[in-house]
UniProtKB/TrEMBL annotation, chains A, B:
Its cofactor is Mg(2+). It comes from Eudromia elegans (Elegant crested-tinamou). SUPFAM superfamilies: HAD-like. Phosphatase that hydrolyzes imidodiphosphate, 3-phosphohistidine and 6-phospholysine. Has broad substrate specificity and can also hydrolyze inorganic diphosphate, but with lower efficiency. The gene is Lhpp. It comes from the Eukaryota. PANTHER family: 4-NITROPHENYLPHOSPHATASE-RELATED, PHOSPHOLYSINE PHOSPHOHISTIDINE INORGANIC PYROPHOSPHATE PHOSPHATASE. One of its GO terms (cellular component) is cytosol. Its main location: cytoplasm. Gene3D superfamilies: HAD superfamily/HAD-like. Its EC number is 3.6.1.1. This is Phospholysine phosphohistidine inorganic pyrophosphate phosphatase. The keyword Ribonucleoprotein does not apply. It holds the Pfam family Hydrolase_6. Belongs to the HAD-like hydrolase superfamily. The lineage of its organism: Eukaryota, Metazoa, Chordata, Craniata, Vertebrata.
Amino acid sequence: MAARWRGTRALLLDVSGVLYDSGGEGGGVPIAGSAEAVRKIKASGLKLRFCTNETQATREKFVKKLQGFGFDISVDEVTAPAPAACRVLRERSLRPHLLVHDDVMPEFAEIDKTNPNCVVIGDAADNFTYANLNEAFRVLIGLENPVLISLGRGRYYKETDGLKLDVGAYMKALEYACDVQAEIVGKPAKMFFESALAELGVEPHQAVMVGDDIVNDVGGAQQCGMRAVQVRTGKYRPSDEKHPQVKPDAYVDNLAEAVELILRQL
Amino acid sequence: MAARWRGTRALLLDVSGVLYDSGGEGGGVPIAGSAEAVRKIKASGLKLRFCTNETQATREKFVKKLQGFGFDISVDEVTAPAPAACRVLRERSLRPHLLVHDDVMPEFAEIDKTNPNCVVIGDAADNFTYANLNEAFRVLIGLENPVLISLGRGRYYKETDGLKLDVGAYMKALEYACDVQAEIVGKPAKMFFESALAELGVEPHQAVMVGDDIVNDVGGAQQCGMRAVQVRTGKYRPSDEKHPQVKPDAYVDNLAEAVELILRQL
């Protein structure tokens, strides 16, 4: 079993459902043992990057919340979809109509949003009103070449008070209404994982992804040539273990167990 | 050309986008010439049925609005998705969680809704808040055998102030989030057209459908063996005429022209 982890030089950690469960009064609760596990990774000399699809806050705000929960994390250790989307928008001279959470808006402050020629959709949560989704729909259907950029394609995530619909569901609604296919800039897009690996300076076979999402974390990372572990926290459901396409390299109860497994071989 | 309409004994008319454009202060505006066209059909001896996917009101309220616009229409001439859904729910002992427009709720008054074992989704319009869609999602994802019944699968419709997202977009969101396939009880479901034909006592080849929706009206009716005409009113878009799968038996500018064409051969 231990042989499986040989050659590991870096860990990529999903955040929501792995480090903490989001939602509720304080913005969430840490998952037991995860803060200690992050400290152990850093002490071990392994490289570390946080790969999140969360788009409900700027990275600054997001990192501050996690620091408050006791995590050793800084903004420059985080790979997130909003900055990736901004790169794409600039490269292709796209001016977005934004359907995103209020708190992630500042990430797009420098982007020209006049006379939109595309729609960017993120996890807008309560901003997903009928009126707002309809407005995004009207922009898209009015374009000669409709471009829909989605900050992820997650189905749902777990908050402290239960499961919540994620951006993927609303992306599908717009795809169907306008007969377009969205371009994903978060997980499981290959480009997203590759940019995290480049930041770390490691090859895919040297890295292990740890996540609670069988498709977007585990499947996405494996498609890039990485190994991937699914934790039984967050949105994990027992039926994930019978997934027809994706088989993680290991299941673990939580991040603490994942780190123990991987550090044992060093 | 006239030969195409030989043997016609009945007309099935879509309502929104054919008789009137919905929305705005008075609930919509009639399309010029349509009220007169309905009278001509009735005077001609052709059988007539109104086939609507509208689920924003009870049939009673809906018919009253159309009568106010000057249409000769009564409740027992209307085939609509909500009563069709009630039949399915009763036959299969299903207890729905309803995500529908407030005004269509009375159609489900007699249905047991305690301890839901399925979700019924209609065109809920402003009721499609994030909280409401999430509630329906949680019911579905919590069922061992999730059943999603949709009162149509339209992408969008046209109101007086512009295009509006229809139930199909939200159906797709739930399908994706829960990995289920919805059962459609409105157009273009075969059962829906067949029940309208049974009410009229005619065979499919004796009936002509008139609608503004290339897929749900025209395609659905043709799949049942009926002929179908697309009107260039309502949500019609020029790109419909290049639809890769569906070719109407004729295009007409509006219902008045359709009726003129068909009556000419009688």
